[in-house]
Write a structure and sequence with these properties.
This protein has 428 residues and is mainly beta. It has a domain of 279 residues. It has three helices and 44 strands. The strands form five sheets. It has a twelve-stranded parallel β-sheet with strand order 1-2-5-8-13-17-21-25-29-33-37-40, covered by helices on one side. Strands 3-6-9-14-18-22-26-30-34-38-41-43 form a twelve-stranded parallel β-sheet. A twelve-stranded parallel β-sheet has the order 4-7-12-16-20-24-28-32-36-39-42-44. It is elongated.
């Protein structure tokens, strides 16, 4: 017997309307009520599920787009370290102005630690982390990434962390031990972001009075003022060591002192940082590299920096020294008014090194040998497209070359020489 296509009730053959629901019947009446009812239920189920899915998607989007939780110091936690310990990846810790006498460790967390206004110099000066000469003020040693951010503080009163390093160089096993990273220590493959801070009046007996970057670490160091820090040995402002390659960009590095090498920056042992767009001025090295020292098989990029008024007291390279199998690219810099008491007022190249020195302004530097550039100890730099003017020396006002070294110049020579005293190029 036929059935109603709407409610499934029996309909006599030939009936036009269903006796149960009154629905008008088509000429061909459905004969499968068991299939009609489930189809209607499925449609109702979809009408219920679609809004639920939409609600779930919107809720998930709101969760993902929510701002990172903000933890305040001293509002939520009395100390910065307590806030770090309570934080989770993605959190932001905001520190009110004040002096916080502590030594902090980021503990491998991807968090932002900042002052209330990192772009305001007055707030940066008033938000102080003072290490109390009790170790490095800030430590990154647990593989932190660029999402670990330190921004907008004055970092002071650091004395470094004791470390012992063993490494091999030219088949010889070497060991270095001492205190490193007075202000900030970055070590063990860590690569945080360090920005918009003032890092001042820190010390380290071995290296990195302001910042030490070591052991395969690659932080971004940008927009900081790094001043009046001291290393008894190397890297008064910044030490880069042992396979490390930080980006050092747009900083002011001034008034730092190293007892041996790299008053402003020392790059040592298989490291290749990018040093770009910095102002490096008024730094002093007890021996070599008043502004920057590059030694032991390193190949940094040194580009578009202003390197002025630095001093190498008892060695070479008032502005930059390059030694021991190193091959940096030194391009587009202004290297002026630097002094070396022995060789290379602007740049000294020695000990089998082969830098590219290109398109720099090397002016008004002073040394005993090589007022602008000194080349010695079996080295072979490429020197092209530079303006070398107003430099002064006893020999080689512009360039001084020892008997066992070689200059690679363009043919014809495309460097510009002017007003160098007593001469332009002197071959010993």
């Amino acid at each position: 017997m036929p059935y109603c296509s709407d409610c499934g009730s029996k309909v006599e053959s030939g009936e036009r309307f269903c006796p149960n629901c009154g629905q008008e019947q088509e000429a061909e009446v459905s004969v499968a009520p068991s299939r009609q009812v489930p189809a209607r239920k499925s449609g109702r189920l979809l009408l219920i599920l679609i809004p639920l899915v939409v609600i779930a998607v919107v809720a998930a989007g709101v969760f993902l787009l929510r701002p990172a939780p903000v933890i305040t110091v001293p509002g939520d936690h009395p100390t910065i370290q307590a806030a770090i310990e309570a934080a989770r990846d993605g959190d932001v810790i905001v520190v009110e102005p004040g002096t916080y006498r502590e030594n902090i460790d980021f503990m491998g967390k991807a968090i932002t630690l900042r002052s209330t206004a990192p772009d305001d110099p007055e707030v940066v000066a008033a938000t102080i982390i003072d290490g109390g000469n009790n170790g490095s003020v800030v430590t990154f040693r647990t593989g932190e990434t660029g999402e670990a951010v330190l921004s907008g503080f004055t970092i002071t009163g650091g004395s470094g962390t004791w470390e012992v390093f063993e490494f091999e160089y030219e088949g010889r096993k070497e060991e270095i031990e001492g205190y490193f990273g007075g202000g900030i220590l970055v070590i063990e493959g860590s690569s945080p972001t360090i920005e918009k801070n003032t890092i001042e009046n820190n010390t380290a007996d071995m290296g990195g009075g302001g910042i030490a970057v070591m052991l395969d670490s690659s932080p971004t160091i940008t927009g900081n003022t790094i001043t009046d820090n001291t290393a008894d040995v190397d890297g008064g402002g910044i030490l880069v060591m042992l396979d490390s390659s930080p980006a050092i960009t747009g900083n002011t590095i001034t008034g730092n002192t190293a007892g041996r090498g790299g008053g402003g920056i020392l790059v040592i042992v298989d490291s290749s940082p990018a040093i770009t767009g910095n102002t490096i001025t008024g730094n002093t090295a007890g021996r070599s590299g008043g502004g920057i020292a590059v030694v032991f098989n390193c190949s940094p990029i040194i580009e578009n920096n202003t390197i002025t008024g630095n001093t190498a007291d008892r060695g070479g390279g008032g502005g930059i020294v390059v030694k021991w199998d190193s091959s940096p690219a030194i391009t587009g810099n202004t290297i002026t008014g630097n002094t070396a008491n022995i060789s290379g007022g602007g740049i000294a190249v020695g000990h089998n090194s082969s830098p590219i020195i290109e398109n720099n302004a090397i002016t008004d530097n002073t040394a005993r040998w090589g007022g602008g550039i000194a080349v010695e100890h079996n080295s072979s730099p490429t020197i092209t497209g530079n303006t070398i003017t107003g430099n002064t020396a006893d020999e080689g006002g512009a360039i001084w070359v020892s008997g066992c070294s070689t200059l690679h110049l363009s043919i014809p020579d495309d460097n510009i020489y002017r007003d160098n005293v007593p001469d332009d190029i002197y071959y010993e």
